[in-house]
Amino acid sequence: xxxxxxxxxxxxxFGMFVHxxxxxxxxxxxxxxxxxxxxxxxxxxxxxFFEPDLFDAPTLARQAREAGARxxxxxxxxxxxxxxxxxxxxxxxxVEACGRDLVREYVDALRAExxxxxxxxxLLDWSHPHYTIDRHHPQRGAADVAxxxxxxxxxxxREYLHAQVRELLTGYGPLDYLFFDFTEPAEEDGLPGKxxxxxxxxxxxxxxxxxxxxxxxxxxxxxxxxxVTPEQYQPVRPFERDGVxxxxxxxxxxxxxxxxxxxxxxxxxxxxxxxxxASSVALGGNLLLNVGPTGRGExxxxxxxxxxxxxxxxxxxxxxxRGAGASRFVAPSGVVYTQRGDRxxxxxxxxxxxxxHLPDLADRVEFARFLDDGSEVLFExxxxxxxxxxxxxxxxxxxxxxxxxxxxxxxVALPVIELRLRASS
Length: 425
Prior knowledge:
Blueprint: H1 7-12, E1 14-18, H2 23-26, H3 32-35, H4 40-43, H5 57-67, E2 71-77, H6 94-98, H7 102-112, E3 116-122, H8 145-150, H9 154-171, E4 177-181, H10 196-199, H11 201-211, E5 216-217, E6 240-241, E7 244-245, E8 249-252, H12 270-282, E9 286-291, H13 301-317, E10 335-340, E11 343-348, E12 355-358, E13 365-370, E14 379-380, E15 401-404, E16 416-421
Helix pairs in contact: 5-7, 5-13, 9-11, 12-13
């Protein structure tokens, strides 16, 4: 189910996530402070070496658009607590570190490129002295956790958090998307997580509705909002609540790390990335694909090359993604369907030999073509009792449309066939 607020989001289908912060300088995962149990005072030294001289927001925006994304989400603040905007709440920010308001540069560049503006904001903050040590905190294993927490007051942190969100919502013009991260109250090793009450989530969401009424908000405040955001997981069925379909977005990395990870070379191929995109849209969802700029602020060449390949595919296949969604028709094995109006798109994950049988589409299709070059794909409906060339027991089921394919697939990351449906279909 969608409303006016999410119409653009459901239409655009493909966004780019950008994780950038002090962890980009460390270059070994955005949770490096957590994984290595680094004290806040020691971690803060990275601010002295934060020199994003290659962070060029117009270039970033252009790369996103050329990849086929129509919205971008930047980490204004990740769990480390370092702020990329000109905040009055703390000196732990980019303006103090490098003399630049990177959020300002980012929002201006996106608008100039005609892209929707998204902001990521971490509810966690490992830099704040009153943020209580919980199951995700870098100091969760310290012997004196109870003593440290006794001197911390979440009410003080909560006021700080709300002030930061208010700055972002009032200082940067109309925003399209606010991506909160994250609420997880479950206990682990004797320490709790954080609940919606820790943030006063209801008040935060009310602030969003008051200050940016047209802005989409995700579900990670721990209370229902506009969309759900599965992470590092490709859903196998649409999301719904009480039988009502939900707006959703699969959040995915290129190599398993959100922030720049110099030594991680487990990058996904462009073919896999476009399959993930098609799979998301086929289930009525979006894909938010992440890049983590280097410590100097540019998208690493290996990631830029992948974005370019995805963009090359999107240039020829955007009609099967943007403005498309799930279809009522059931695709055969090795194929996923997306649909936009009277156009059904068959994404061929597996390339068959010679013939592709599509159940329940006989007499429903008036024309078929490869989407990459517009070339016609011939088809027929094979009678169930036909014996010549097709042995009777192996004939397709009645109602099947059979496409005649060349031996070699098109030279694209994912072949797509557009089927023009008849008006009665």
